[in-house]
Amino acid sequence: MSSNSSSSPSKLQSSSSNGSPSTDLPLKPIPGNYGLPFFGPIKDRLDYFYRQGKDTFFQTRIQEHQSTVFRTNMPPGPFISSNSNVIALLDAISFPILFDTSKVQKLNVFVGTYMPSTALTGGYRVCAYLDPSEPKHALLKRLIFSILASLHDKFIPLFRNCLSELFVNLEDQFSDKSKVYFNTISDKMSFDFVFRLFCDQNPSDTRLGSKGSTMSDKWLFFQLAPLMALGLPKLLNFVEDVLLHTFPLPAFLVKSDYNKLYNAFYGSMASILDEAEQSGIKRNEACHNLVFMAGFNTYGGLKTLLPALIKWVGLAGEKLHRELCDEIRTIVRAEGGITFSALEKMTLTKSVVYEALRIEPPVAFQYAKAKDDLVVHSHDAAFEIKKGEMIFGYQPLATKDPKVFEDPEEFVGHRFVGEGEKLLKYVYWSNGREIDDPTVENKQCPAKDLVVLLSRVMLVELFLRYDTFTIEAGTLLLGSSATFTSLTKATSI
């Protein structure tokens, strides 16, 4: 199946407002096909997980079709997803149509072509799965904005406090071992930070004890398992495919852990739930949404982001480390501390964070459905997408578009310094462009600026304490791993 329409782009909605090149590009049919019903999605799923792997899956199809826009199927397929057919957008020019809620609908497509059971979120469709056209979306997103605004003064001091505990833990483990796995201590720190931020107490003082991050990980796994491959021996691929990608994992298996998380948040967020109730949101619905925001969006995001940041900065080497040390320590001395003002003046530090978000976005996928017939542009062609068709974007390819970024596969710490700032409009990681702001009318992450802030603070605290470090990098189910192999304490501050 491929589009053979000869409709004129002038009669259809166009993606040119999202930064496309000339609207005079030739209108071409979208290449690719979905294969036979049932068997086509299964074949593409096996290619994606086992025969080729993610990046090769997309790259081979780009080469085959000589196009960064094509038709394919995306996992999980039967029987979890009722329709696997997507139009893939894999370049920096076509990709932003996925953020334009005037042209696309974001209903129930937060994680992909399927939606996890609402039994995992208290029976509610939480804000992430709502389209901005639904009235409740604005109510819930305004509540999140209000919460973040009220906590503004806590971001830096609380995160610094949590990082201090992380680095003490890191050094203690180094005293006993020659290598320290970062992800585990980062996950614990991230959950502690999130819980202390929103609930104003340490999770260890609640019934969660020290198991909050582990409970959250299990809950996240039950939602995202259809997108994962465990890396088992080939002989077990069939068993894994049936267990993870064919039928949803039963929600009751994680219900106990989720209820503990819910009760811990509910018992600690009285004032926030009061505010929600006053705005017209039921207390329990608000709490389920806030658990999702804290546990999935915030903790889940930090769980992916911080190890990736450490990985790429570590692999960049000692020269970049010296430059970061010099900038960070000079500005902290001049400003008399780590403040919003000081962080804004650290141009290299900011650039390094943006580069980490560019080269390994914490969320790899974007999905949407066309509200009406529209035309999307790649670098060299225009393509008609019909109303109701599912549109898909793989962010790591869009943000490594070789026609936009020089040496796109390289981590270049200075990439966004000076004139390089103009390229920030092509950094997509937050369900929007880096230069855009989240609003109640769009689906951009409401904590977008907080994520960037925390990443900068992480680097500042790291290079105030240490001159350089080395790591071993690896891959996980959805993200990267980082293992510290050396850590050199600061010789001067």
From TrEMBL:
UniProt superkingdom: Eukaryota
Molecular-function annotations in GO: heme binding; iron ion binding; lyase activity; monooxygenase activity; oxidoreductase activity, acting on paired donors, with incorporation or reduction of molecular oxygen
Protein name: Allene oxide synthase
Bias type Low complexity, positions: 1-22
Chain positions recorded as heme binding sites: C445
InterPro entries: Cyt_P450, Cyt_P450_E_grp-IV, Cyt_P450_sf
GO BP of this protein: fatty acid metabolic process; sterol metabolic process
Family, as annotated: Belongs to the cytochrome P450 family.
Coiled coil region boundaries: none
Keywords for the protein's UniProt record, in alphabetical order: Heme, Iron, Lyase, Metal-binding
Cofactor field: heme
Region ranges (Disordered): 1-26
